[in-house]
Amino acid sequence: MTDWRQERTAREARLERARRHADGKVVPAARVVDLLEAILQPGDRVCLEGDNQKQADCLARGLSACDPARVHDLHMVQSGIVLPEHLDIFEQGIARRLDYSYSGPQGARIAKMLYGGQIELGAVHTYLELFARYFIDLTPNVALIAGVSADREGNLYTGPNTEDTPTVVEATAFKNGVVVAQVNEIVDRVPRVDIPGDRIDFVVEADKPFYVEPLFTRDPAAVTETQILMAMMAIKGIYAEYGIRRLNHGIGFGTAAIELLLPTYAERLGLKGKIATHWALNPHPSLIPAIESGWVSQIHCFGSEVGMDNYIRARPDVFFTGSDGSLRSNRAFCQTAGLYACDLFIGSTLQIDLQGHSSTVTTNRVAGFGGAPNMGSDPHGRRHPSDTWMKAGREAGGTGDPALRRGRKLVVQLVETFGDKLVPAFVERLDALELARKLNLELAPVMVYADDVTHIVTEEGIANLLLCRTLDEREQAIRGVAGYTEVGRGRDHAEVERLRARGVIRRPEDLGIEPLDADRSLLAARSIKDLVHWSGGLYEPPAKFRNW
Amino acid sequence: METLTFRYATTQTLPGSRPSAITGVVASGNLEVLLERNAPPGECRVEIDTAINGYGDVWAAVVADFVARRQPGGLTITINDGGARPDTVSLRLAQGARLMEAS
Questions:
Q1: Nearest-CA distance from A224 to chain B in Å?
Q2: Which residues does A502 contact at the CB level (< 8 Å), separation at least 6?
Q3: DSSP state of B58
Q4: What ipTM was reported for this prediction?
Q5: Fold of B2-102
Q6: A346: nearest Cα among A248, A436, A423
Q7: pLDDT tens for residues A132-189?
Q8: How confident is the model at residue A420, as a pLDDT?
C-alpha cells in the first residue's frame, strides 16, 4: 500500500521532538537552539526569513549556534542575504546550498565565499521568481520568520514590514512544513491578524526587536547637481513624453532626485496629475514632498521604511493600511503590481555593456538582484493597453496589423557615466561573465537584459533604444551617452550626430533644459530635516540620518 | 598638481555682455570656473589647475566638446579643480557659459 502521508508523519515527528521545549506554541528565546536542533534535519530546505528589510535575526543567531554535527547541509532558500549569520552558517557547515535573490549588505563577503567554494550556489533569482519556486521545486521544509507580535495561539501581526512573510508561510505551512516565528512580544490580542495562528507552529519571544534595514532613505543633502540634471532629463524627456502615471522607482539617488523635483520642476512644467500618480514603491521619505503637494494618488508597498510608520498611518488615502491603521505591505503582490500594472521601471546599475545588458555584479561584489529584473522586464503576459505602453510599442516598430502589436514596458537605466572612484559604468564586457566563468555558471547573473531596456539616461543625454533598428545603431546610441568613459570616447561621432538628428539621442539642450536649473535649490527638500517638516513632524528618521 | 592650457578657434563669439562670472567652489570632487570676456572674438582660452595628475586627455576631450557645443568665442576660462568628475566639469562649464550669456 502506498503511504500518501509520509510528509505529514515526518512533520508530526518534528513537532513531537520540539514540543518539549515549548509551552504550548510559545518558546523562550533561551531555548531557540534546542528548538531548532529538534526540528531541523540534515539536508532540509530552510527559509530563514531575510527580506529586503525585515530580518529574523534572533532565529538566525539561534541557527548559527546549532551543533553542526546535528544540523548540517541545509539548503537555504531565502530572498535576502543580509546578516553576517546568513553566511556564517555556510562557514560552519550548517548550510551548504543557497538559492537567493539579494545580498547587498553582504555583497563583498558572499563574492569571496562563492569564489572560495564555501557556498554551493543554485541561482540568483529575482524576488518573484524565488517566491514562485517556493511553490514548485524549492518548497521549504522549515520556515523561520519574523513578526512584531503574536498571541499564544500563534496569530501573527507582522507590522508594517509584512514583506515576504505571507508567501513564505503559505508555501511552508500548506505543504507539511514547520513554521517558527520570532516576535518582539507575546500579547493577549494582536492589533490585526496578518497570518492566522493555525499556520504557525511555534512562537519565539525574541531577546530584542528584529532588525530592519533603512534601505530606502536617501538624504537629500547628498543629491548632486549632476543627479538633478539627470532627473530633469528623465522628467522632461521620458515622464512627460510618454505620460507615465503608473511606475516603480529604484532606490538610488537619481530616482530620489526625480521624487524631489516633482513638486518643483515637474510642477513648473504643468505635469501635476499627468505623471507619477500611481506607484509600486516602498514608502520613500523622499516622496513626502510630492505626496504632500497632492501629486500622488496611491502607493502599494513591498515593505515599509524605518521612521515612516506614523506618516503612513496619517495618510490612509495614499497607502494600503489595515484595520489597525498601520501599513500592510506585501512583497509578492507589489512585485506583481510592478511587473504587470506599471508602465515604467527606472533604476540604476553598476555596469552596462555595448548592447545594453546591465549587471550589479562586479569582480569583488555580488549584490544580487532584488526586484529590478522583474520590474525591469517587459511582461509578455500583459494584455491591457495604456497610452504609455502603446506609444512605446509603436516606437519599437514591427509590422502587421497594429491591433496585433503589443505595447512595451518602459525600462529605464538612470546611470552616471562614472561611479565611485571614477569607476566607469559603461564597459565592453560585464564582470558578470567573469563570475559565471569562474563559478562554472551556465547563465551569467544579468540584472536587466538588453532586449528589455528601452532608455538609458546619463548626464550626457537620453538614448532611446526603442528607436534603434540595428545592433550597430544600438551600440552607437549607448556610446553616445557614455560620456568620457572609454566606451563613450570610442564613439563614431558622425553616427552619434545622425542618431541625435533622429531623436534617438537627446542632449539636455535638445530637451530645452537650462543647465543653470541644475542646482540644489530646485530640490523640494534639501535635507532629512526638510522632509520631517514636509511631513508635519510625522516622519521620524532613524538616528543615523539625524544631524541636528 | 598639474596645469593644463588649451586654446581653441571658435566660429562664433559667445553672446551676452557680462564681463565675467564665477561658478562652483574648489572642494573635493568639485571645481571653480572663472569666465572672463577678454580674449579675441574667435578664440577661447582655457587654463586648468587640477589637484589630480594624469587626466590630460580627458580634460582635452571635455573642453573640446564644450567648445564645440557652446562656441564660447571671446572667453578666457580659468579652472581650479578639486578632483571633479568629467560630468561635473561639463555641467559647470555649461552653467558658466549660460551666466555669461545673460545680459
A1: 9
A2: A467
A3: H
A4: 0.93
A5: Ribosomal Protein S5; domain 2 (3.30.230)
A6: A248
A7: 999 999 999 999 999 999 999 999 999 999 999 999 999 999 999 999 999 999 999 9
A8: 81
Residues of B whose CB is below 8 A from A481: none
At A318, the amino acid letter reads V
**In this structure, what C-alpha cell is assigned to residue B31?**
571645481
Chain A interface disruption, residue of B53, B57, B66, B91, most A CBs within 10 A: B91
Is A516–B69 a contact, with Cβ atoms under 8 angstroms apart? no
**Structural contact between residues A374 and A338, judged by C-beta atoms closer than 8 angstroms:** yes
Question: Given a cut of 90, is residue A363 above it in pLDDT?
Answer: no
List the grid coordinates of A48: 530563514
Dihedral angle over CA of A164, A169, A174, A180, nearest 10: 160
User: Residue A7: pLDDT above 80?
Assistant: yes
Do B62 and B8 form a contact (C-beta atoms < 8 A)? no
Stated length of chain B: 103
Helices and strands in chain B: count of H runs, count of E runs: 2, 5
What are the pLDDT digits (tens) for B94-103? 999 999 998 6
pLDDT digits (tens, 9 = 90+) for B25-58: 988 889 999 999 999 999 999 999 998 898 999 9
Domain boundaries, chain B: 2-102
Closest CA to A304 of A145, A160, A166: A160
Q: How far apart are the first and last CA of chain B?
A: 36
Question: In A300-458, where does DSSP find H-type helix?
Answer: 309-313, 331-340, 372-375, 387-395, 431-439
Rg over alpha carbons for chain A, rounded to the nearest Å, is: 24
- Cβ-nearest to B95 among A418, A489, A515: A515
d(CA A149, CA A188): 10
Asked whether the beta carbons of residue B98 and residue A514 sit closer than 8 angstroms, the reply is yes
Are A450 and A356 within 8 A, CB to CB? yes
Of A417, A422, A515, the CB nearest to B91: A515
The residues with which A126 forms a beta bridge, in sequence order, are A370
3-state secondary structure of A234: helix
pTM given for the model: 0.96
Is A377 within 8 Å of A342 (Cβ atoms)?
no
Nearest by Cα to A507 from A499, A495, A517, A519 = A499
Q: What is the pLDDT of residue A78?
A: 96
Question: To the nearest whole percent, how much of chain A has pLDDT over 90?
Answer: 93
Rounded to whole angstroms, the Cα distance separating A385 from A403 reads 11
